[in-house]
Amino acid sequence: MSLLDLTPDELLTTTRSVRKRLDLTRPVPLDLVKECLDIALQAPSGSNRQTWHWMVVTDKDQRAAIGEYYRRAVQTYLTSEGSCAALYADHPVRHPEQQRVGDSVAYLGEHMADVPVLVIPCLDAKEAPEYNEAGMWGSVIQAAWSYMLAARARRLGTAWTTLHLMYEKEIAELLGMPDGIVQAALIPTAFSIGTDFRPAARQPLASVMHLDTW
């Protein structure tokens, strides 16, 4: 499959969390997922230990079981005070945006089981001794982001999700994961409906950059 004609900057600024525009009817070739994972393996890892693992789920029954756990987690999350849809309630611009995000999260909660490929980046915690949490998670998160960038370039949509971790133990048992393997995310992967994603609205750089002192 030909890659999208994107510059590095365009790729980095238009890789969106795709939920409602995931094509739930079109199969994703496993070889295409493997291409993206091969690229992910070029990411840095702590001390070059490369202690990551990648759980790729395509089986319909397993996807259904994971989807049910995710649906429950989404329901719990969206009714909590920390829900994305409840943030910035007094802000005339950001609150409507957050409500749209909440709506798309709810949609994915109902359709995670229908996504053709679920990718769970994992870390072997027994083989990744680090002095801090940043060091440990820094050995898998940037690789997962590389996977998502590679997927975008190949016309695939993805989303970074972690709500399934409310049921991490149950999902680990479902998938036969050994002790010591921790899950970093759940990345739904499907062809995107259209590829015309644009940069998202973000806070001005001046509000978050601190030069020399805070």
Give descriptors for this structure.
5 strands; 214 residues; 7 helices; alpha+beta
- In the predicted model, the low-confidence regions spanning at least 5 consecutive residues are none
- Tell me the number of strands: 5
- How much of the sequence is in beta strands? 5-15%
Helix share bin: 25-40%
Mean pLDDT: 93
Number of helices: 7
The helix-strand sequence is HHEHHEHHEHEE
Rough outline: globular
Spatial separation of the terminal alpha carbons = 47 Å
Find the structural class using helix and strand composition.
alpha+beta
For the CA atoms, what is the radius of gyration?
A: 18 Å
Main β sheet profile? 5 strands, antiparallel
Describe this structure in words.
- The chain has 214 residues and is α+β, with helices and mostly antiparallel strands.
- The protein has 7 helices and 5 strands; from the N terminus they run ααβααβααβαββ.
- The protein has helices spanning 8-14, 30-40, 60-78, 94-111, 133-137, 141-153, 168-175, and strands at residues 52-57, 117-124, 156-158, 181-183, 187-191.
- Strands 1, 2, 3, 4 and 5 form a 5-stranded antiparallel sheet that branches.
- The longest helix is centred in the first third of the chain and has 19 residues, at 60-78.
- The relative contact order is 0.23.
